[in-house]
Specification:
By secondary structure, the protein is of the alpha/beta class. The chain contains 18 helices and eleven strands. InterPro entries: Bact_solute-bd_prot1, SBP.
Length: 459
């Protein structure tokens, strides 16, 4: 079934690249190097064209996004401000949490009922626009959409076959965040190495607590954590630039062994423990997180606000942890990708109005201050300058983004988050956690399925 689905979702290759990080002694994976996205803006010919009058544009738009309450509240406020500034354009907001969102958008895209302006995930470009025609060419909207505020390196993330399908709002990476209130209560220091993290299990479990968690549902955080560890240990890329699998079967087994060691050391709860508490409810909404029983999370910098605000309401403090490493690390191991992107439906009946809305959300100083860092640190130089002037380039989202950027991380392959790939990670992690397969057995199955899937989708 997975192979059939993989064939149906075949996509074209987006190259990934690697830049070094860490000490001078660290060796880098054998892959060509590409600089991390620049922060300097570069104007395109379309962006420098004479701008049209956006106030003369009219239309009714559907605007779709996912996120937590902090993002919803800020975006709804920005939409209200947009309608006040452009009264001829009406916006119908459609939003919700991440769970089930990708499936919903897939149905809408397939059925031709998707919104006019969409927040999209990185892997959706290869899924919905393998030949570059799945979304509106945003460079055709240069009269209403200013692209000069984005560097070409950043815009490259949104191109398919050279066509600008989407614009990255920001870049992001998963970092480790910890409940300082709980750590202070236990009398523990934040870990700096993987060994430090493993050693915390005994100290926390003595008080019925856990220092870390890898969320539940997709199995992705658990395997992501192991990928970072194994990339550091071996110097191998999990997915090579050409879309082939970079890990050996033995690498995968060691990665699953590492995941299981976190459970065995009581650093994290088992899959069964998390599922029994709240099913697939996101960690930040569970009693274990809100009560400080679970004191750490691996999360995107662009999404950490929902975890932080949940603890603030309980009088607890969330802080950024260290990017853990190990002695003799062969690479940084940690990833960066576009946090999310915005695209316009190629079938929209109001492309000019959609471009005006997108320009406002991405570039307008008023919108920048309203939205803050709910989608990460803006890639738009105009939005970033507005936040800087307002004194808002601070906080966990900013700190996490800077931490990843400053490490010159591995640029994440778009295939890493492919839905079929995620299902493979989930089945392997659950099999090991529930004890229905040994790490060796799970690795053999996982390796075969990953190779087959990548052969289908990375064409």
């Amino acid at each position: 079934m997975k192979k059939a689905l993989a064939m149906a979702m075949s996509t074209c290759l987006l190259a990934t690249s690697l830049v070094g990080c860490g000490s001078n002694e660290s060796k880098q994976p054998e892959a060509s190097s590409t600089p991390a996205p620049s922060t300097e803006a570069s104007a395109s010919p379309e962006a420098s064209a004479e701008a049209a009058d956006p106030s003369a544009v009219s239309g009714t738009l559907r605007f779709n996004w996912w996120g937590g309450d902090d993002r919803h509240t800020a975006t709804l406020e920005a939409v209200k401000a947009f309608e006040a500034k452009y009264p001829n354009i009406k916006v119908e907001s459609e939003y919700g949490g991440w769970d089930g969102h990708a499936e919903k958008i897939t149905t809408q895209m397939t059925g031709g009922t998707a919104a006019d302006v969409l927040q999209v995930n990185y892997d959706w470009l290869s899924k919905f626009s393998p030949d570059g025609t799945g979304f509106l060419d945003l460079e055709s909207m240069g009269s209403y959409l200013d692209l000069s505020t984005f560097s070409e390196d950043v815009l490259t993330f949104g191109r398919r076959k050279g066509v600008l399908n989407a614009i990255p709002v920001s870049t992001t990476g998963r970092s480790m965040y910890f409940n300082k209130t709980t750590f202070d209560k236990v009398g523990a220091e934040l870990p700096k190495t993987w060994d430090d993290l493993l050693a915390l299990g005994e100290k926390f479990s003595a008080q019925g607590l856990y220092p870390y968690d890898l969320d539940t549902g997709s199995g992705f955080p658990g395997w992501y954590n192991s990928i970072v560890y194994m990339q550091q240990k071996t110097g191998h890329l999990f997915i090579n630039e050409d879309g082939t699998l970079g890990f050996t079967q033995e690498d995968i087994k060691e990665g699953l062994d590492f995941y299981k060691s976190l459970e065995d050391a009581k650093v994290i709860r088992t899959q069964e423990q998390r599922s029994n508490e709240a099913g697939t409810t996101p960690l930040y909404q569970t009693p274990s997180w809100l009560d400080g029983k679970v004191a750490g999370v691996l999360e995107w910098s662009s999404s950490i606000g929902k975890f932080e605000s949940a603890l603030e309401e309980k009088g607890q403090e969330l802080v950024l942890g260290n990017l853990l490493t190990l002695d003799g690390a062969q690479s940084t191991g940690w990833f960066m990708k576009p946090s999310l992107l915005f695209a316009i439906n190629k079938d929209t009946k109001s492309p000019e109005a959609a471009a005006v809305l997108l320009n406002y959300i991405l570039n307008d100083p008023e919108a920048a201050v309203i939205l803050g860092t709910t989608r990460g640190i803006p890639a738009s130089s105009a939005a970033k300058e507005a936040l800087q002037a307002a004194g808002e380039l601070e906080g966990l989202a900013y700190e996490g983004t800077k931490q990843i950027e400053d490490c010159q991380p591995i640029i994440m392959s778009p295939y890493l988050e492919n839905s079929i790939m995620k299902e493979i990670y989930k089945e392997a992690v659950e099999a090991v956690s529930y004890g229905t397969a040994t790490t060796e057995e799970a690795a053999a199955t996982m390796y075969e399925e990953l190779v087959d899937t990548l052969e289908s989708i990375a064409q």
